[in-house]
Every structure is written in structure tokens, then in C-alpha cells.
Design brief:
globular, five-stranded antiparallel beta sheet, 599 residues, alpha/beta
Length: 599
């Protein structure tokens, strides 16, 4: 037997005329008890009106922009729940329904259909909190620490034994520690050019591995200490949603149910594993085929290494293993290494790698990979490479895939795209208003420094602050040798979009500092809007380019014009003054170069 049920606005406190900012269902939808039907926003809080029964939505009584008060009818359901209030009865929110969240702009419509959320488990929670952060990478731990600083009772869930996520444990930090070691090897070799010979390096692999782990350990220990200082409760294990307000965490201590009022998803990404390779899966596969995590374990130094993928991760690892003594071959499917960066930025790196003996093959793909006793035999489709060759180890570094499909987000009603991304609005809010998402899982660029800013923003919005994500630019850096960094509009992008730009380019061959350290292959390039002379982009290639790019990012954020940069006194002799000089090149006022005037 079915009954018609009116869902009404429950007691929401001393509020009248609260606007409807989001409609979460439509006529014909099947809804679970306690599932949100609409979102309301007052000047103090955003809240969902939950369904008082499970059933089918027969009619919506409100539309976007309508104002409602306690007792206003939201929808009429056809329900088989005999315990539900019948027509004329008011419904009250279930204890498991989302608690009022802070005020925010409504989430935009997402391309992926929103799934029907699962009902509350009805089980007693092992842990309850105001804020649950899923993932403790740079974005996640920032979100958790900021939430705690703002007074929210916070639980931080992390699958690794130590905080820091992929970046700190098996990504950014260990790779930079190894790149530092590679740089020292190259610097020592370079010293022969000015009369200092250190001899051939002797590599104690266990000691080097220990150094990398010490760097990681120092940072993870620091994070653990800060979590304790802030009274952030850390739960180790893999988290999966059970309902819009519950998550199960499976770890060494067993499975725990955590109930939360708000959540920030910071579950990150994982390396893409191409199916053509014999990946280790249980007892099947070959450990000589590596992803970036495997490569950073530094189990040995192979005599020969094939790097599949000429992006930032692949080239950084090629830099490390080449310095340690491996014969490195890089294959890239596109027509240049590091696709996305301007070709002129890439050339100094490509030239240096070639001089160091790294073989780079563009427009090339691996069509076959077989494990043999002699090594991994790979077949290729490419004009500049033999049809097949054998390598002691193969590193596959063709990108990363988001973990949106691995956390059962659909059970929380969170929309996930086919590729595993979660779409958010400018406040990092998903289609479920009390759940936010940040970092790799919301899309490109997959960068730790982007996730950090998003995590802080999400926490502040959750705590009631009126903010949006309005970053103009996000810098990218490849910590190769030389480093490559860019920010804002690239020349390639500007030409594709038909933008009218001007370029100021200062070669480091004219830099006293670059000459002094014997690294003159680099340059600094600034891109200006031709009409306003405002800076809109930049690219730097050379040692410490990643440190230099921040000045330009700030200049773009501040809307600087060419004179603002050129008239800023930079210390001499430094690499940083190349930024000011590039502005002078564009402005036609440079004195450290002779550039004939255009007729």
C-alpha cells in the first residue's frame, strides 16, 4: 500500500523567507529516506531539506529562487513507508541527515548525473566529527589543519602509515631528494671545467636510499606533530563512503565507521598503468616494470632503463637514473617532450640530455612488452627507434588518473565523471552541499601547490567564510636539469587563441651569474598583452627556474605592467635579475644587450 507524503521544511530556527538555491531531485526520481531534496541558504547557513520517507517524487512544490519558511511544502512523494508522515504532516530531519553547513554559492550543474545516495547505515559510529578529510596529502592535511584552526572537530583519514599522501611519501619530496643527489653528481663532474676534479662518484645505494627516507621521515614526523598539536584525530586506512554522512575506513586496526557533518575529499590520484605491460598483480607480472612509486624505491641501478612518457615525471626520473649510471631511453607519443610547454623552453633540456647520452624518441609508442630472462623486450612504433629492444627495467610514466571511482562517492550522492574526476564549484563544493573536493581528484593541473590552496579554501568555506577560488594562474615546474618553469599564458596557447602579445626574452648567456656558474643555456621569457602591456605569462629554463617563476606568478596576480617589473630593482648578480631584464627587452630599454631598433 502506498501513501502520498508531503515533505515540509522542518524547524530551522528563527528564520523566515529562506531562498531555495538548489533543487536536488526532479519528478519521477526515487529517493531514500533522509536524502536531500532541496538546498536552502540563509545569511548564516546553507542546509538541505531531507526527505521524511523513501519513495518516488510525484511533484515539486518549489522552484529555484522561491522563499520558504518552517512548514512550507517542498515536495509530494508516493511512499510505501507506513511510518512516514502522511499528507499534511511535517517532517523533521533525521539525526543522520547533513547538519547545517556554512553559507556558500550554489554548486553549478555538473556534466555527470548525480547518483542516488545510499541511506544511512543505521549503525553506531565508531567515531563522530564535524569535519572529515579523506586523504592527507598536501591538500588534505592543509584542509584538516585549517579546519581545526577554525574550531571544527576534525578527523583526517590517510591510507599511508604516515601523513603526507603520495606527494610526501612516494612523489614530490622523495623525487626532489634524489634529484638533488643527481645534481651534486653533475656539479662535481662540471667542476673539472674550472680545475677541480673529484673523480668518478662512488654510489652507496643503501645510503642514498636512507637519505631519501630520512628526508621523507623528517617531514612526516613534523606533520604528525602538528596534527597532535591541533587535536586532529588521524585514522589510518582506506576510506569509502557508506552514505552522505558516513565513511568506512579499512585499516590494520580493522574497519571503523566514521560519521561526519561535513567532508572534504582529498583522495588524489594514482599512476596510469598501460595494459600492454606485464604489471605485477599478485603472483603474475614482472617487478622490472615500474611506475613512479616503484622507481622512487631505488631498488637497484639498472644498466638500461626505458622511460615511457616524456612528461615531467618521466623526465625527472630519467634525470635521476642517468646521473646514477643507467643508460636511459625516453619514448614520447607526442611530437615534443613535456607537451604543454613552449618548444623553445624544451630545447635547452633536450640538448643537454642528448649530450649526456639520453636517447629521446618522439612520435613513438610501445606496442608490445614481454618479460624475458634477459629483460623486458619492447616493440615500438616510431621512425627513429629500432623495432624492438631489451631493457633491464621499464618505467611507465604516462600520467595519473584520479581516484574518484575508488571511494564509493556515489553512495554519498557525489557525481563522478567517467574518468574519475569530481566536479566542484568555485568554493570547492561538490553537487552535495556539505561535501567538498580538492586536489588531483577535481582535475588539472595535478599539482601539490594547487591542492594546498584549494584545501585551505574548502576548510574556510566549510567554517562559514564567504570565499571563492579566484587564482589567475598556477605555475608548473619540471625539476629536471635544467629546470623548466612556466606560468600563465604560453606562446603556443596565445597563438592558438589569436591573442595579440609581445615577448621579452633575456638569454642567460648575458647573465653574469649564469656565466659564473657555467650554466648559460637558460633564458627568461615574459609574455605581455600587446595593448595593455600587462604581463600574462612567462617561461623560464635554467638552474633554479622553479624558484624564479614565483615572482612572475605574483606579477600576473597583481596585474603588473612591463614598467612595474622593469623598474623593480633586482639584486646583482643574480639569476632573478633576468626577470627584470626580460621586461626591459620588451620595453626596448635594455642596456645589457644590444638589440637593433626596428625600422
Amino acid at each position: 500500500m502506498t501513501t502520498m507524503v508531503e515533505v515540509k521544511v522542518p524547524d530551522i530556527g528563527d528564520f523566515e523567507g529562506i531562498p531555495v538555491i538548489e533543487i536536488l531531485v526532479k519528478p519521477g526520481d526515487t529517493v531514500a529516506k533522509d536524502q536531500g531534496l532541496v538546498t536552502l541558504e540563509s545569511d548564516k547557513a546553507t542546509m538541505e531539506v531531507p526527505s521524511s520517507a523513501a519513495g518516488v517524487v510525484k511533484e515539486l512544490k518549489v522552484k529555484l529562487g522561491d522563499s520558504v519558511s518552517e512548514g512550507s511544502v517542498i515536495a509530494v512523494l508516493e511512499s510505501a513507508d507506513s511510518t512516514a508522515a502522511v499528507v499534511g504532516g511535517a517532517s523533521a530531519p533525521s539525526p543522520a541527515a547533513p547538519a547545517p553547513a556554512p553559507a556558500a554559492a550554489p554548486a553549478p550543474a555538473v556534466a555527470s548525473p548525480a547518483p542516488t545516495a545510499a541511506a544511512s547505515s543505521g549503525r553506531k559510529a565508531d567515531i563522530e566529527c564535524r569535519m572529515l578529510v579523506l586523504g592527507a596529502g598536501p591538500g588534505g592535511y592543509t584542509a584538516a589543519f585549517r579546519s581545526a584552526d577554525l574550531g571544527l572537530d576534525t578527523v583526517l583519514v590517510e591510507r599511508y602509515a604516515a601523513l603526507g599522501g603520495v606527494c610526501l611519501n612516494v612523489g614530490c619530496i622523495p623525487s626532489k631528494a634524489l634529484l638533488h643527489a643527481a645534481n651534486v653528481i653533475d656539479e662535481a663532474a662540471h667542476a673539472k671545467d674550472y680545475g677541480i676534479d673529484f673523480g668518478a662518484p662512488k654510489i652507496a645505494l643503501d645510503t642514498l636510499r636512507g637519505y631519501k627516507e630520512k628526508v621523507v621521515g623528517q617531514l612526516t614526523k613534523g606533520l604528525s606533530g602538528m596534527a597532535k598539536q591541533r587535536k586532529v584525530r588521524v585514522v589510518q586506512g582506506a576510506g569509502r563512503f557508506v552514505s552522505p554522512n558516513e565513511i568506512e575506513v579499512a585499516g590494520d586496526a580493522g574497519t571503523q565507521l566514521v560519521r561526519f557533518e561535513q567532508c572534504i575529499i582529498a583522495a588524489g590520484s594514482q599512476p596510469v598503468k598501460l595494459p600492454a605491460f606485464p604489471w605485477v598483480n599478485g603472483d603474475v607480472g614482472d617487478p622490472r616494470v615500474m611506475d613512479s612509486t616503484d622507481a622512487l624505491e631505488l631498488k637497484d641501478i639498472p644498466k638500461s632503463l626505458l622511460v615511457v612518457g616524456g612528461g615531467i615525471i618521466g623526465l625527472e626520473m630519467a634525470t635521476v637514473y642517468r646521473a646514477l649510471g643507467s643508460a636511459v631511453t625516453v619514448v614520447e607519443f607526442m611530437d615534443q617532450i613535456m607537451p604543454g610547454a613552449d618548444a623553445d623552453l624544451i630545447k635547452p633540456l633536450a640538448d643537454r640530455l642528448k649530450k649526456q647520452g639520453v636517447a629521446i624518441h618522439l612520435k613513438t609508442k610501445v606496442v608490445e612488452a614481454k618479460a624475458t630472462k634477459a629483460g623486458i623486450v619492447c616493440g615500438f612504433d616510431g621512425a627513429s627507434i629500432p623495432a624492438s629492444d631489451t631493457y633491464e627495467r621499464v618505467l611507465v610514466a604516462v600520467g595519473r588518473a584520479p581516484n574518484g571511482k575508488k571511494i564509493d562517492a556515489d553512495k554519498a550522492g557525489v557525481a563522478v565523471t567517467e574518468r574519475g574526476f569530481i566536479e566542484v564549484d568555485r568554493q570547492m563544493r561538490t553537487n552535495v552541499p556539505h561535501i567538498f573536493a580538492i586536489g588531483d581528484i577535481i582535475g588539472q593541473p595535478m599539482l601539490a601547490h594547487k591542492a594546498t590552496h584549494e584545501g585551505k579554501l574548502a576548510a574556510e568555506v566549510a567554517a562559514g567564510e564567504k570565499k571563492e577560488w579566484v587564482a589567475r594562474v598556477i605555475p608548473s615546474v619540471a625539476y629536471t636539469d635544467p629546470e623548466i618553469a612556466w606560468v600563465g599564458v604560453t606562446e603556443t596557447e596565445a597563438k592558438a587563441k589569436g591573442l595579440k602579445i609581445g615577448v621579452g626574452k633575456f638569454p642567460w648567456a648575458a647573465s653574469g651569474r649564469a656565466i659564473g656558474i657555467g650554466r648559460t643555456e637558460g633564458f627568461t621569457k615574459l609574455i605581455f598583452d600587446e595593448a595593455s602591456h600587462r604581463i600574462i605569462g612567462a617561461g623560464i629554463v635554467g638552474v633554479h627556474a622553479g624558484d624564479l617563476i614565483a615572482e612572475v606568478a605574483l606579477a600576473i596576480e597583481m596585474g603588473c605592467e612591463v614598467a612595474d617589473i622593469g623598474h623593480t630593482i633586482h639584486p646583482h648578480p643574480t639569476l632573478s635579475e633576468s626577470v627584470g631584464m626580460a621586461a626591459e627587452v620588451f620595453d626596448g630599454t635594455i642596456t645589457d644587450l644590444y638589440i637593433p631598433k626596428k625600422k
